[in-house]
Design brief:
heterodimer; A: 143 residues; mainly alpha; 5 helices; B: 499 residues; 21 helices; 79% helix
Chain lengths: 143, 499
């Protein structure tokens, strides 16, 4: 296993950090350009999936534990929702970002940044979890 | 902007969706079964209280519109609460609160404790979806919330104790997805014609565009799509299996809420968006829906008579009862629609009551087969008494809620001169006598087999929710001003808006 697929392994060693970096770019560029939380989450998740395809499931699972992924999944939604609750507490309607900062433009910026971060976290961890659960199942049946 | 006391209560519509959603997520994070149950129960009762406040406010001050994100409709997404959906919201949150209170006891039998927090998370997500479908003023949001509630209900059904729960969940998933897709297709066509997704705006635009083929196809897609979720007679195939093999708590919850919200969506589309004129005068939807409703009333009841599993019997009875609601809708008169809406409310009470009784029986006896009921009248007196009262209401005996809805339906049929329909309603009620009596006879007039194990009375954690529903059945059977009064006003509003 270790000696096989030398090209694939060395290429993905180069590519995976770039994929993840690009995901972060799509994530934080999303409010003013094409991109956003969902796309970024999918790209980051794809990075995780590529890693586990090339280096094997056990290694990937050591980094991304299911319980940790579950917590990230939940906290993404929680982040999204708490932005909504925060806007209500600051006197606006649900998810009215205008009230988040002193000036509405900054408020909108901050609001969409946090909300998209929530989306990104949840989408990425859901992608990885789905992949892990399906591959787990296969392994269990093989044994 | 506002003073804070006023502003918090004016955000009640947003809280109806946001609080259950966030609590569902918190249930995933806390792994203690009991803590998750406590959170879910508190949230459900709070949502019920909120729904009551909202209904009261709608009665006093008229329709509530809440602008999400501060964007004005029709550009922004609004939550719009009028008499009709305020009543449906009360059904959803109320039944959810009662059923989830019972779940601490009943669930331990059927679902391993390790999964309880995820179960409550799915339960709250389902409630979020149903509440969202009910109060949103945006047709695309209806689809999104439909998917939230459907996906979580597939997960809930698959938690049943036997492996057949998995296949029935998949069966429901396939049917439900087809239904959701058709609904989305219809919404897409409406968007193409009107260029808007807001319900009020869409109705205005449609009135200007007038009927064309795209609109008619959209109406057909929406009707068939929601009919699948509603389990209208030939599209009900998913329902009996899903209700039979799901955990008892889930059945009590879904039977009283999921199909009711589907009915709400159908009525909302037909009356508030397409309008009575298009749906009933040009397309003659009533000529399709009324025969289907009547066939459902008879076929559902007759098949129910031959079931040996009482949960399955009640599931088929649901198919018949959905027929009554659809019959009320298809008459498109104020009395008929009142009957349909009030039966929505009443059937939610009696069916979740009956399914909770089955949860008690399952908890103590371990089976819901008719043979397991032998002699239960003596051994579980409170439980079976609840079954009798809810059963009488199912038949339509005076002083119970079932009578109120049948009264409205029969008088609507006579009002419009459809005497055969009135006779058919009464005849199908007699079929309900047969299937309810079968259980009563076995429970009260047959002795328990001698080798039967000792059966204790049902635990108090289950009896209190059951009897809450039974009292509601009697209360709303006598004091009809809340249920039938609001339903009548809602029906007048829907028909007034349509013409």
């Amino acid at each position: 296993m270790v000696t096989r697929h030398v090209i694939l392994r060395s290429l993905s060693k180069v590519l995976i950090p770039l994929i993840m970096l690009f995901a972060l770019y799509v994530q934080f560029h999303g409010d003013y350009g094409p991109g956003g939380g969902f796309q970024a989450g999918v790209i980051f998740g794809a990075g995780i999936i590529l890693y586990s395809l090339i280096f094997g499931l056990p290694k990937a699972r050591m980094v991304f534990r299911l319980r940790v992924l579950q917590i990230i999944m939940a906290s993404g939604v929680l982040l999204y929702g708490s932005v909504g609750i925060a806007t209500i507490l600051k006197g606006g309607n649900f998810l009215d970002y205008n009230v988040l900062a002193h000036d509405p433009v900054h408020g909108q910026h901050l609001g969409i940044l946090l909300v998209e971060l929530g989306v990104g976290l949840t989408v990425c961890s859901v992608m990885a979890t789905l992949f892990f659960l399906f591959t787990e199942r296969r392994r269990r049946e093989d044994v | 902007m506002h003073d804070s006391g006023l502003s918090i209560s004016s955000h009640l519509p947003a809280f109806q969706i946001a609080v259950p959603l966030l609590s569902a997520v918190i249930c995933v994070l806390i792994r203690k079964a009991r803590a998750a149950w406590l959170l879910a129960t508190t949230v459900a009762w709070a949502a019920f209280a909120g729904a009551c406040v909202l209904l009261n406010r709608v009665i006093l001050h008229g329709t509530i519109s809440y602008e999400q994100g501060g964007w004005t409709p029709p550009w922004g997404i609004e939550l719009r609460i009028d008499l009709f959906n305020a009543l449906v919201l009360i059904i959803v949150t109320g039944i959810c609160a009662v059923v989830i209170s019972a779940s601490l006891t009943s669930l331990s039998m059927e679902v391993p404790e390790k999964k309880h927090n995820l179960f409550y998370a799915a339960f709250l997500l389902c409630m979020t979806g149903l509440a969202g479908m009910t109060i949103t003023g945006d047709v695309f949001n209806i689809f999104v919330f439909l998917e939230i509630s459907s996906l979580s209900s597939y997960a809930l059904i698959s938690q049943g104790a036997t492996r057949r729960a998995l296949t029935s969940s998949i069966q429901y998933l396939v049917m439900g997805t087809i239904g959701g897709t058709l609904l989305l297709l219809g919404i897409g066509m409406l968007y193409m014609v009107t260029g808007t997704l807001n319900i009020v705006d869409m109705a205005d635009q449609l009135a200007m565009v007038g009927p064309n083929r795209t609109v008619l196809v959209a109406l057909a897609c929406v009707t068939v799509g929601t009919s699948i979720k509603l389990a209208v007679f030939p599209l009900h195939i998913w329902l009996p299996n899903a209700y039979t093999y799901a955990p008892a708590i889930v059945t009590a919850f879904l039977a009283a809420t999921a199909t009711k919200v589907a009915f709400y969506v159908l009525a909302r589309f037909i009356f508030s968006i397409f309008g009575v004129e298009l749906a009933f005068e040009q397309l003659h939807l009533d000529r399709v829906l009324m025969p289907l409703a009547i066939v459902a009333m008879f076929a559902g009841s007759i098949v129910a008579i031959y079931q040996t599993d009482i949960k399955r019997m009640l599931a088929y009875s649901s198919v018949a009862q959905i027929g009554y609601m659809l019959l009320g809708l298809s008459m498109a008169s104020v009395t008929g629609l009142t009957g349909g809406i009030v039966h929505l409310f009443n059937h939610a009470l009696m069916k979740s009551g009956l399914f909770l009784v089955m949860a008690c029986v399952l908890y103590r006896v371990g089976s819901t087969h008719i043979d397991a009921m032998r002699g239960l009248g003596k051994r579980m007196p409170f439980t079976m008494a609840a079954f009798v009262i809810a059963g009488l209401s199912m038949i339509g005996v005076p002083l119970t809620v079932g009578f109120v809805s049948k009264w409205y339906l029969v008088s609507a049929a006579m009002e419009s001169g459809q005497w055969p329909v009135a006779v058919l309603i009464l005849l199908s009620s007699l079929l309900a006598v047969v299937y309810i009596w079968r259980v009563v006879e076995v429970a009260y007039f047959q002795e328990a087999p001698e080798d039967a194990p000792e059966v204790k009375k049902a635990p108090i954690g289950l009896l209190v929710p059951v009897w809450t529903l039974v009292f509601a059945i009697i209360f709303f059977g006598i004091f009809t001003s809340l249920s039938a009064g609001v339903a009548g006003d809602a029906a007048r509003m829907l028909l007034g808006a349509g013409s």
